[in-house]
Amino acid sequence: MIAKTREIERDKRLTNNLPLIRYVDPEYVYIAITNARCATGESYVKEGDYVKVGQKIGLRHGPFFEQPIHSTVSGTVVGTVKKFHRSGKLTEFIQIKNDKKDVMDESVKERTPEEIKALTREDFVNITKEMSLVGLGGSSFPTYIKFQCTDPIETLCINAVECEPYLSADHRLIMEYPDRIMRGIGYAMQAFNAKRAVICIKKKYDDLYQTLTATLTRHQNLNIEVKKVGNYYPQGWEIEMIKTGLGVKVPTGVLPQKLGIMVLNVSTVVGLYKAIRYNMPVVKRNFTITGDGITTPQNFRVRVGTSLKELIDFSGGYNSEDDKVLILGGPMMGANLVRDDAVITKTCTSCIIMNNKEYKEEPCVRCGSCVYSCPAGLQPVQIMQAVKNNDKDALKNKLNIRACILCGMCSYTCTSKIHLTDYCRKAKKIAL
Fold first, then answer.
1. pLDDT of the residue at 282
2. ω before 281 within 30° of 0 (cis)?
């Protein structure tokens, strides 16, 4: 297991030190009409319409919220097409031909420092809702709902851990855009009237520590601390990060905000910076292509809506004719793709391309590896048996499946190669 972990970290270091390549002028972009949190949606544009950067071109409908859809380029609407979403599902997208002029919508305008200082909590709610800002670490949870929090917030905890293997998009964001991070944190502190903020990073990344602490010398009016936390997975799980970074244990079922803590991803605070200062939705993001199946691992600054296939081709394509495994997101919690005809949405962090290796699933030997490795203290094998027996009561009460974060550790450590995380995912649906 130690050798396997070291191999993963070697692959991660391949992209950690690679500067971003700007790939922000694709011929076409594709904007999803629905997503994993919004099952329905509508388009406000039709074939032949001219759209601008930041223009509202549709609306998604979630279970308790609505999410505006924005164009990320200026150009002409071609129509709608079916492509794969980051959730792994085939989804309808609005296709726009990019005129590469970046004509901004009239709604995009810079706010003065005085205007920003005068913003109220309600203003932050309205702006982030209208800009459709969501958790950019992959959660896609609407940020405006966090700003609606009525509990007093004393501490902002900024998740810059990026704990999954292979990922380096946030690493490069910190190295190349640290000032935007500090300004975004400052805006969030203003909104919550928070006394301090703590940026959590893995302790082995001294380059991040040096970059962030040096940048803080330009923001001495902000009470921000850079905290080194553990190098292990899942250190980026907010409960684990809060315990390690702040010394606070969050009880199961209790939201951190009840303890005066609000967690935001480091990419999200950059999105907040753009939304507050320029009234701009997320139109670009960092994205990593890596793995042993791609010719040249790369870090990109991409236009949201870019075709994944374009980036694969730009990276030299696949390095062999062997079967490939494509994972959109991290290897532990990402979604498998059946084809590379996918689109990079605002919550996509990476695509990991691996040469396929066949693993034969064996019977469970009761070794306990899944139990020892579970950060939530669950019993994955018992959960698997309950799923097979369709025992809803056991899953909901005795086995506490709701506490599962689908981190993938049970599958990763299983000596019998049983896909226990898939059973946990099924269990959550059964227990609803």
1. 98
2. no
Q: By the 8 A CB rule, do 404 and 378 touch?
A: yes
What is the residue type of 294? Answer: I
CA 366 to chain centroid, in Å, comes to 34
Which pLDDT tens digit goes with each residue over 343-382?
999 999 999 999 998 889 999 999 999 999 999 999 999 9
Phi, psi dihedral angles at 208 (to 5 degrees): -70, -40
Burial class of residue 225 in the structure, from the number of CB atoms within 10 Å of its CB (0-12 exposed, 13-18 middle, 19+ buried): middle
| pTM more than 0.70 | yes
User: How far, in Å, CA of 162 to CA of 180, rounded?
Assistant: 18
CB of 315 closer than 8 Å to CB of 308? no
**For the residues 175-194, what does the mean pLDDT come to?**
98
Indicate the pairing of strand 28-32 with strand 90-98: antiparallel
Residues 213-233 have a mean pLDDT of 96
How confident is the prediction for the chain on average, in pLDDT? 94
Condensed to tens digits (0 to 9), the pLDDT of residues 79-115 reads 999 998 877 788 999 999 999 999 999 999 999 999 9
DSSP-derived 3-state class of residue 167: coil
The size of the chain, in residues, is 432
Query: Do the strands 196-202 and 224-229 form a parallel or antiparallel pair, or are they unpaired?
Result: parallel
pLDDT of residue 85: 81
C-beta of residue 188 within 8 angstroms of C-beta of residue 157: no
Domain boundaries, the chain: 2-106+282-355, 113-278, 369-431
Task: Give, rounded to a whole angstrom, the gap between the first and last alpha carbons of the chain.
Answer: 35
8 A C-beta contact, residue 155 and residue 246: yes
pLDDT at residue 3 tops 80: no
Structural contact between residues 11 and 292, judged by C-beta atoms closer than 8 angstroms: yes
Superfamily for domain range 113-278: NADH-ubiquinone oxidoreductase 51kDa subunit (3.40.50.11540)
Residues 224 and 427: their CA atoms lie apart, in Å, by 40
Give the per-residue pLDDT at 8: 46
Rg from Cα positions in the chain: 22
The CA–CA distances, whole Å, from 428 to 33, 345, 381, 383, 397 equal: 26, 26, 15, 10, 12
Measured distance CA(153)–CA(158) in Å, rounded: 14
